[in-house]
Amino acid sequence: MPKPLVAIVGRPNVGKSMLFNKLTGRRAAIVEDTPGVTRDRIYGDCDWNGREFELVDTGGIEPNTDSEMLQFMRRQAELAIAAADVIVMVTDVKTGVTAADQDVANMLLRSRKPVCLAVNKCDSVGPTNPDVYEFYALGLGDPIEVSAVHGHGTGDLLDWCVAHFPAPSEQEDEGEVINVAIIGKPNVGKSSLLNRILGQERVIVSNVAGTTRDAIDSYFENEFGKYRFIDTAGMRRKSKVDDAIEKYSNLRSIAAIERADVCLILIDAVEGVTEQDTKIAGLAHEAGKASIIVVNKWDLVDKDTNTMAEKTAEIRRDLSYLTYAPIIFLSALTGQRVGKLYERINAVANQSAMRITTGMLNSILEDATARVQPPTDKGRRLKIYYMTQVGVKPPHFVIFCNDARLFHFSYQRYLENQLRGVFGLEGTPIRLTIRQKG
Ligand code: GDP
C-alpha cells in the first residue's frame, strides 16, 4: 500500500521550510526563508503515532521577483492538488491574510482535497492569538496555530493530517477490481473475444448508470483476480446497427478507454496495423492507460518459426509510440492463449499503479546524469535538481531543472529509458513534466 502524501504549500517567508524540518525531525542546511534561496531537501519520510507518510515541500524552489509570485504559487498548488492526499497550507500570523493566500485557498478549496490551514509564527503558548481569527476568511475551516521555531501546534497539525488520510481499506478496494476495455476497429474481433472470455467465467452483468446508450459491464472473479470488462455499448448483444454506428464513430472507444485501467488494443493478425488501428491505439496512449496489444485471428495466419518475431517487429514499427505495451498473439475463435491474458492484465495494471520513492528516483537521476551528461547550448548546461513522482495511472514524474529549453526530447527519452530499465513499467505510458526554477 502506498504511503499517503502530504504537501506543504504557501507564500515564501511564511516558514514552510522550517515547518518542514520540524515535521520531518531533521535540520536542513538552509532554514532561512529567503525568497530565491534554493533549499536542498524537499521531501521526507514522516511517522506520526505509527502512521507513516511522505511529506513534500512543493515550494522548494521559489521565484526571485514579485511579478512571478502568483503564477509560482498557482503552479505549486496545482502540483499539490495533483499529488497529495492531504494539503497543508501555511500562512503567517505576522503578515495576516494576503491576496495571494486567498487566491491559493480558493484553488485548494475547489480541489475538494482535505486542506489543513496552519497559521505559523504563533510563537507564544497560551490563549489564541486574536490575529488568528482573520484566517477564517480563507474558508478553509479552523486554523491551527503553529510555531515552526518552537514546534508547538505541530502535533495538532499532524493529528489533523493523519485523521484525513484515506482509509487503508478504501485504498485497497480501489485497487482490487481491474477495469478492462477491449478496443479496436469494427470486425477485429472485440465481441468474439469478450464472449470467449465471458463464456468461461461466471459473470455478473450490470447496467452502467449515466451512459446514454445502455452500456453493460461484465464483472467476474477467477483465480487471477477480479475484473470488470467494460462494454463498449452493446458489444455483447451485437447487431448490424451497432456495426454501422461504429464505423462512423470512435466515441464508444473513447468512453470505454476513459473508464478503463487496462486497454486491450486489438489488431487483426492478417491485416496488420491499419491507420484506424493507429488512431484507436493513440487514444489509449493519450489517455495514459496501461495497454496490451492483442493480435487476434492468429489461427488464420500461416506460421513458421519466424512468424511471431516478424509480426512483432512489424507491429513495433507501426505502433512505435507503444513500445512499452506487451504483445500477445491469440485467437478469439479457437480460444488459443486467451487464458494467458489475465496475468498480463494484472502485470500491466500493477505497473501503471507503481509508486517510486523520491529517494530512489533521485539516485537513478544521479546515476543517469553521471553516465550521460545533460545537454548544453551556447555554453549553458542543463542542470537537473531533482525528480519526484506526483501521480499514478500512469506514473507521472516532475523534474525540476534550471532551463526547460535545454531539456531536449532526446534527453527526456533517455531518462525515461533509464527509469524503465530499472523499474520495468511495462505496459504503461509514463508522463514527465519539466519544471523550471523561477
Ligand atoms: P468486432 O466488430 O470487433 O466486435 O468483431 P467481431 O467479434 O464481431 O468479429 C468479426 C468477425 O471476425 C466475425 O465473423 C468473427 O467470427 C471473426 N473472428 C473474430 N475473432 C476471430 C479469430 O480469432 N479467428 C478467426 N478466424 N475469426 C475471428
TrEMBL record:
GTP 1 binds at residues 10-17, 57-61, 120-123. InterPro entries: G_ENGA, GTP-bd, GTPase_Der, KH_dom-like, KH_dom-like_a/b, P-loop_NTPase, Small_GTP-bd. Residues 4-169, 178-353 form the EngA-type G domain. It holds the Pfam family KH_dom-like. Gene3D superfamilies: 3.30.300.20, P-loop containing nucleotide triphosphate hydrolases. Keywords: GTP-binding, Hydrolase, Nucleotide-binding, Repeat, Ribosome biogenesis. GO terms for molecular function: hydrolase activity. GTP 2 binds at residues 184-191, 231-235, 296-299. GTPase that plays an essential role in the late steps of ribosome biogenesis. Belongs to the TRAFAC class TrmE-Era-EngA-EngB-Septin-like GTPase superfamily. EngA (Der) GTPase family. Associates with the 50S ribosomal subunit. This is GTPase Der. The gene is der.
